[in-house]
């Protein structure tokens, strides 16, 4: 691993760049129709996943690129999800996350997303983090609100998705607000 790669460790998880050796595990959860119902990318074959991984940026923090981190159970090194990080420019980042169905509702996504946002603000000194969510994806919207992101916009039928126009909800937080919000949580 190069010194520029992101490696995040939490109490239960390790987050690291997705590699081709992770393809089969990624296909398993990403091809589940329940998991992928709000996703733009829906792989059907191992080759689909290999192609996706091959197109990702090898290094983080390069404007106008996507970097994909796998969410791994620390004890077993099992891949249970992933977090996409779109480095929009030098100051702003978009995130998206996917979690295997059998690991949903156990706090893993919250744990991973919080630590990735911490990394983006505290290590990379980003100004703003945004997330774009289908408004039917109640679980993801609840997670984003719970950790302090604010709903900034609801665009009606603004995205062509699954052969129809769909709404898009944008959540965001500024680095200065994230720091205040998370310091306050430490003293609750």
Write a concise keyword list for the protein shown above.
188 residues; eight-stranded mixed beta sheet; 8 strands; 29% helix; alpha+beta; Aminopeptidase
What's the short story on this structure?
The chain is α+β, with helices and mostly antiparallel strands.
Could you characterize what this model shows?
With about 190 residues, the chain is α+β, with helices and mostly antiparallel strands. It has helices at about 25-30, 45-55, 110-125, 140-145, 175-185; strands spanning about 5-10, 15, 65-75, 80-85, 90-100, 130-135, 150-160, 165-175. Helix 1 (about 25-30) packs across helix 2. The termini are far apart. It has five helices and eight strands; from the N terminus they run ββααβββαβαββα. The radius of gyration is 16 Å and the shape is globular. It has an eight-stranded mixed beta sheet with strand order 1-2-3-4-5-6-8-7, with helices on both faces. Helices cover about 30% and strands about 35% of the residues.
Secondary structure blueprint with pairings:
Elements: E1 7-9, E2 13-17, H1 23-30, H2 46-55, E3 65-73, E4 79-87, E5 92-99, H3 108-123, E6 128-133, H4 138-146, E7 150-161, E8 164-174, H5 175-186
Parallel strand pairs: 5-6
Antiparallel strand pairs: 1-2, 2-3, 3-4, 4-5, 6-8, 7-8
